[in-house]
Amino acid sequence: MSVYLLRRLFQSLLVMLAMSVIVFVGVYAIGDPVEILISPDADQIERERAIKALGLDLPLWMQYLSFLGNALRGDLGRSFVFNEPALQLILQRMPATLELAFGAMFIALLIGLPLGLYAGLKPNSMGSKVIMTGSILGFSLPTFWVGLMLIMVFAVQLGWLPSTGRGPTVDVFGLRWSFLTWDGLRHLAMPALNLALFKISLVIRLTRAGVRETMLMDYVKFARAKGLSPARVTYVHVFKNILIPVVTVVGLELGSTIAFSVVTESVFAWPGMGKLIIDSINVLDRPVIVAYLMIIVLMFITINLLVDLAYSALDPRVRLENK
To answer: How many Cβ atoms from other residues are within 10 Å of residue 75's Cβ?
Structure first.
């Protein structure tokens, strides 16, 4: 296992290096932030002074080498707009996005697993057909429209939940978290549910397909022949085996939820990384954009590694193959 971890870490470093080149070149080759940040009435001397202050007077390869050297020291540049370290800006917004993403995945698993299990065990029942029809709606409905409907119903009509923003926060290990307060949970409920809608449908379909396939396996038939109770067959022999593809897909979906929660954060005015990156793109704040993308790449690599480790823990065949 140690050799496997070392190999994966080496591969992760290569991926990070390759992505740093792609992200840096892709972002720095688009547009000119000076045109946005400097007044149109500024003369040529002021423009040249601003270009030099932002480090844009150097060739692109020298800018990249400077960025890479600073990144190895934990410095991803300073924001053109806020004049603060880009990494600090992102880390200030990261807890909001993380609690939104983890809240959405928790809701998806809490609702999707039992519904998918029921739909797989009783595929011809009316309840199963209703569940599968609902999962199609979950895939089809646009996220922004669902968010607006949630606000209209639960915030405007019923007045149960706040419509936008983030609730009061509690400082834990230097990070501000809102889910630890009751009002924070009320603010989190609607955006997390909105973000979880697609994931619920995905978990339902994965779980149902896994149950239908596993129920036909010989070890399940043998467990039934031994006289084990249906509950034991379901939760010991079926449920554990269907978790392997579910854990794999849900782990990858967690990364995409963190990276692409922009629409939900915009609809509910949630002060997370997604809203920050949209604002940064509008003003071509290159250091913030590059820092955000590099952090997202690092998150995806880390989540992939954790998913592989969880996969090997759930499936003994993978452990033997790694050995």
So the answer is: 15
Give the model's pLDDT for residue 50. Answer: 65
* Span between the terminal Cα atoms of the chain, in Å: 6
**Which residues make up the CATH 1.10.3720.10 domain(s) of the chain?**
87-322
Residue pair 191/268 in contact by the 8 Å Cβ criterion:
yes
What contacts 24+ positions apart, CB below 8 Å, involve 158-161? Answer: 161/186, 161/187, 161/189, 161/190
Contact 100, 254 (CB under 8 A): no
Query: Taking residues 266-270, what's their average pLDDT?
Result: 84
Range scoring the smallest mean pLDDT among 77-81, 83-87, 114-118, 188-192 = 77-81
- What homologous superfamily does CATH list for 87-322? MetI-like (1.10.3720.10)
Tens digits of per-residue pLDDT, 141-196?
Answer: 888 888 888 888 888 888 888 888 887 888 877 777 888 888 888 888 899 998 88
Could you give the CA distance from residue 33 to residue 50 in angstroms, rounded to a whole number? Answer: 10
Nearest CA to 275 out of 49, 19, 94 is that of 94
82, containing H or E segment: none
Q: Which two three-digit tokens encode residue 240? A: 């554990």
